[in-house]
Amino acid sequence: MSSPTAPGHTARWSGGVFCGLRLYTRRGQSSTVRALSEFHSGAATLHTGPIPDGSEDVELAVLPEDKPTYVQVSTLQASMEEAAAQELPPFVPLPPEAPLSIALVPSHPSPQCVEGTPACASLQPDGGKFKPQTRSPHDAAMEKERQSVHHFDSSTHHYGDFYSTSNTIHGPVTNVKHIENAYFPTRNQDALLWDTLPRQRDLSGQHCEYLDGSREDTAQYVLRWAKDPTGAATLFIYGPAGLGKSTLARHLTHRLRVDGRLAASVSLSGIPTDARGPASVVKLIAREIGERYSDAIPAILEAIRLCKDAPLEEHFERFLRDAVSSLKCPYPLIILFDAVDEWQSFGTLIKALPGLSSSASALRFILLGRLDPRARGFADASMHLYPLPPVSKHTMQCYFNHQFNDVRWINGQRPSPSQTTQLAELANGLFIWASIVCSLLKKRLSATTPNQTLEAILHSRRRLGENESLAGLYHQALLWLFPDSDDQELAQKYLGATLVLQQPLPLAAFSSLIDLPAHVAEEIQGALTALQIRRPADEHLVHPSVDLFHLSLLEYLQSKSASHGTPFSVSAFDAHSQLAELCLRKLPQCPPESPNLTCIRLSPQEEYIVKYLATHIQHGTPSVSPASSMEWEQTRHRDILQGLGVTQLRHWGGLLLDLVGSGYPLKENYADKEIGSLMCDVGAALGVGLFRIPWMEVAVRLQPHNPNIWYELGWAYCIRIGIDDSDAAEKAVLSHGNMLDIVKESGGSDRGEALLSLATSLHRRFTVTGNTEDVDRSISMHQELLGMHHHGHGMRGTILSSLANTVESRLKMVDPINNMDEVISIKREALYLCPSGHENRPSALRSLASSLESRFKTTACSTELDEAISLYREVLELSPPGHSYHAPALQYLAFSLESRFETTACIADLDEVRETLELSPPGHAERSSALQGLAFSLTSRFETTACTADLDEAIGLNREALELRPPGHKNRALALQCLALFLSYRFETTASTADIDESISLGREALELYPTGHVRRGGSLNDLASHLLQRYEAQGDRHDLEESISLGRESVALTPAGHLDRRYAPGTLALALRFRPEDLDESLCLRREVTSLMPPTHSRRWEWLMYLAFVLHCHYEHSGVVEELDEAISVCEEASSLCPPEHYLRPKLRNLQAKLAAPRSSP
After folding, report:
1. Which CATH number covers residue 887?
2. 1026, 880: one domain
3. pLDDT confidence tier of residue 703, bands split at 50, 70 and 90
4. How many Å separate Cα 1156 from the centre of its chain?
5. How many domains does the chain have?
6. For this UniProt entry, which residues form the secretion signal (predicted)?
7. Distances (CA, A) of 97 to 169, 179, 208, 852
8. CB neighbours of 1145 closer than 8 A, spacing ≥ 6?
9. Which of 785, 915, 1127, 1131 gives the lowest tally of CB atoms within 10 Å of its CB?
10. Distance linking the first and last C-alpha atoms of the chain
11. Quick check: helix, strand or coil at residue 126?
């Protein structure tokens, strides 16, 4: 006997990933054994059948050898007869008796998983692969070192019985119900990592079937979109409830899978309760991708390792984009999300998609939901909207006729064609209406026949408005199912409880919890199957209603229309309240003799109470504030909690911490008046998971005048911003505001902490809502804090850093170019407060350097760039290889040096850039950035020296960088743009047609990776317009000129006045327009504008002057105005005086000077 490694965890074993795994068992008498495995394609039966008498091993199954399969093992079951003989309920873990053994032997383990191979497999290399040494299954199974199955289980099975077994599992006649996890002493770390990924609930076989051809037009549209490389990155299919969107989603999943374009398909209504945060959903999707494409598993495992505590954006990039990119598919793969607006983090997903789809060749998205995203302000140009129309009346008639085949009509009397037509008209394109009608007709109702039910439904049309047909159907169906008033009252109780139920419960446990007789609950459950759209995977459980019913039914039950004239109306608040009180009264008691009892002996009902009581209290009782808690104080919940006492409440908290595996120790002794602090401590110990906020919400109800609890609750909501943006942001501000009110009233010493917390929450809410009143209040509070914490105070540095971030956020929204002085000043003081040796100094250095470099880009002030370079060097000194700041600082330093070399042509800077490349050898994560940094520096030297060897080396380096950024890489577009730019430089000196053609080709590919709405699309448009203009000037193809002008206009539209790229886009368009006489005035106007935007001290100002002279010359040639010629000559002379003597464009400048001089020299 061995003890569970993590008491209280659900049937969890260690596991391994294997190819060709064989499952053996020995049995002394006949029985039936079933083995299931979680394949990439879902659960599949491996073996069902009798085991022959005797002692020989029986091979139950051989897993596929073509891909790794993660094998898991869970519940062993006693047969019905043996369970009864031992007075055990069926389907429970077996007690340790009588012999049974199971051996798992790999036949061909995947090479990457050899570390996790059981010792019983003697592996021999065979041409780079591995194969087992030849021997009989019996020898393998009986070998002394054979690895037996270890079973760790706790309280998740029926009746709460707990058994722990290991090595040889003993029991009477047995079944293997489900292989969920296999244990091997040599653990495969990759497999253990993989097991940390959440999985989607298995809803296969639980949905309505798709009617062939019913949505073929939509399916064909989607397939065309999927194959169109110029299509939008995201397709949003939306329509009202009941149109069959989820059925369509499953059909599209099938079609895309057959077409080889599906990455993953996820129903956001089928996410487990404990995995509904954005990061968890991202991991769930990654698991779906890995189970479909085993080649993506290494990238996903790497994401698990790298994304611990990483921001959400990095989760999206590494788990999804990088995983799909690793497959190197020649066309985009698609992730399909169904029921997106049934997920609370819908907004977070929508905001992340444009960045994810910037590499359109790797990843695209299909979303299905009810609401037009434009109504929520989410739609942008990168999203194509597809309003799903209702199906035709003919399609609906076909659906009814198909479903009528399964109805037990009286005397075979099927509906007449006219009745079917009437039903189709009543359905009005709503499949959910038709589906429920057919369910009612198929159900054996005691009082009515299917024919009578049909007549009643058709008759209802005369009583219902067309807009209320679905609500009317629900109303009538519920009355048919529960005609008696007593039945209706019981059904209402059942519906209310399941509306707020947090996880499935065994029928007996559910009935006991809500004080409803089990046979009554079973009858109600059976009756409601007529309204279900999904069939439960386990019919012995009571499921949350959201898992079984269409959302429109749940909305109907809670709507005003349901509260008038129907006994079935339910309130989520009231249901939570009732369930909270029931849970409180049945909370597991702390036995005096065992005060430290763990969760091992909890029944399913008790485990549910321990986990979700706080959630029901949070959502079923009035909220409080320091000034108002009277409503809460009048509730029975408050009285019961107070009456339980601190010992019992501590026991509750200990059980929950035990269940979730937290090793956080609670304080032994809490005073009776500290029960709120106790609840808060438990919430803090729970980390950032599902249960933290409910416990803290209960804590503030118990001690509403405790500022520390409001502080913790506010930060809990701050962390949640991004999971449930707007609501969490509001509650974070409210909680920290309450803390500040308490501190003000009491005159406490922690006023500064309260102000900083509220200022931070306001800043976070500003990032969600964009309301400048919030950020202004935040800045004001930071300034007040600075007045309270003078120089030398320990908190001043933290306040300054927070203030700088807040001011910078505001500037990005209202003034992205100017007014950086205040930010830099604040960051300087923050750095001053982090002297040498301070733990925050690297962060302060990097922050100030970044701001200085940003300002240099607008002012061209070389001293700011020099200081930024110096600061980055110090960051590198303080962050050795392996430190989280080392690689980014190396990259930033390289680009800063390149910028300075471009300005000063200092060879020492170029040499230092070469050193950064040496610090990033082949295989280094930042090598591609280092290659590109050196390539830019070499190109800068080529520009000033015209040394073609430098340019050739730069092109070679950039080609290598591009190879390290394959299709799907987040920086591939930038590498494409850079290579295209360098090739265009070489074309200027060599006139090589191949160079300019490749430059244009690369520019087109880069533009495809910046879909409409992407922040960098304007710059990419301008680059391609410039390359096309170069080819037009060399070859004279009018199509190149027209395309250049078209792209240029689009680029200018994306770079309005004040935009950082405004000095570039209008200039390129101006140069193209000068070749069209009718556009010469516009050309000159645009060229003057961009020249005025180039600072007089900028190293490239002479180029802007040269191009202005080009336009002035063209204007003069058309108008003959001598003043324009004079201005062109003057501007050209200024450009010549500023141009480096050996610059590769000086020949072009000399040619222009000669052209300008010609009119003066002619008679």
Report:
1. 1.25.40.10
2. yes
3. very high
4. 60
5. 6
6. none
7. 8, 21, 44, 74
8. 943, 988, 1103, 1106, 1139
9. 915
10. 112
11. strand
| 8 Å CB contact between 153 and 265 | no
Within 13 Å, how many C-alpha atoms sit on residue 604's CB side?
Answer: 19
702 contacts 679 by C-beta, under 8 angstroms: yes
Give the pLDDT of residue 998.
93
Copy the structure tokens of residue 468: 């209320």
Residue holding tokens 């985009």? 332
**Residue 274 pLDDT class (50, 70, 90 cuts):** low
Quote the strand ranges of 269-378, DSSP E: 333-338, 363-369
Buried residues in 1025-1046 as b, exposed as e (16+ CB within 10 A): bbbbbbbbeeeeeeebbebbbe
Instruction: Assess whether pLDDT exceeds 50 at residue 837.
Output: yes
Token pair for residue 1102?
């002479």
Q: Give the three-class secondary structure for 327.
A: coil
The structure tokens 């009583």 sit at 463
* Contact assessment for residue 447 and residue 404, using Cβ atoms and an 8 Å cutoff: no
- Determine, yes or no, domain membership for 206: no
Enumerate the β-bridge partners of residue 262: 334
- Assess if residue 269 is contained within a domain: yes
Name the token pair of 668: 């032994």
Alpha helix ranges (H) inside 517-674? 518-528, 545-548, 551-558, 560-563, 572-585, 604-620, 630-633, 636-660
| Spatial contact of 61 and 4, defined as CB atoms under 8 Å apart | no
What secondary structure letter does DSSP report for 208? Answer: P
Task: Find the mean pLDDT for residues 314-334.
Answer: 86
Nearest to 252 by CA among 225, 282, 287: 225
The contacts of residue 339 (CB under 8 Å, 6+ apart) are 245, 246, 267, 268, 269, 270, 368, 369, 551
- Residues 1147/989, Cβ–Cβ less than 8 Å: no
For residue 270, the enclosing domain spans 216-389
355 and 435 in one domain? no
Question: Which tokens belong to 575?
Answer: 């249901």
CB 839 within 8 A of CB 854: no
Domain boundary among 433, 463, 493: 463
Rounded Cα distance between 1152 and 1136, Å, is: 10
Cβ proximity of 171 and 163 under 8 Å: no
Structure tokens at 1005: 């590919």
Same domain, 1127 and 1036: no
CA R_g for the chain: 35
Residues 320, 399 within the same domain: no
Buried b (16+ CB within 10 A) or exposed e, 1115-1151: bbeeeeeeebbebbbebbebbbebbeeebbbbeebee
The answer, yes or no, to whether residue 585 has pLDDT greater than 90, is yes
Same domain as 928, residue 961: yes
pLDDT single digits (tens) 670-690: 888 899 999 999 998 887 778
Among 128-132, 191-195, 286-290, 927-931, the least confident range:
128-132
Provide the 10 A C-beta neighbour count for residue 1092: 10
Q: Report the interhelical angle of 796-814 vs 751-769 (nearest 10°).
A: 20
Cut 0.70: pTM above it: no
Contact in structure between 941 and 910 (CB atoms under 8 Å):
yes
Any domain includes 351: yes
Among 463, 488, 522, residue at a domain's last position: 463
Question: Sign of torsion, CA 115 121 124 129?
Answer: negative
Q: What is the CATH number of the domain that holds 314?
A: 3.40.50.300
Six-digit token pair at 1022? 């301008």
Residues 379 and 399 in one domain: no
Is the Cα torsion angle 335, 250, 196, 119 positive or negative in sign?
negative
| 3-class SS string, 362-415 | CEEEEEEECCCHHHHCCCCCCEEEEECCCCCHHHHHHHHHHHHCCCCCHHHCCC
Measured from the Cβ of residue 238, the count of other Cβ atoms closer than 10 Å reads 22
Q: How many Cβ atoms from other residues are within 10 Å of residue 552's Cβ? A: 21
Is 520 part of a structural domain of the chain? Answer: no
One domain for residues 1077 and 1125: no
For residues 370 and 403, membership in a common domain is answered with: no
Q: Are the CB atoms for 774 and 763 separated by under 8 Å?
A: yes
1012 SS3 class: coil
Show the tokens assigned to 5: 């490694």
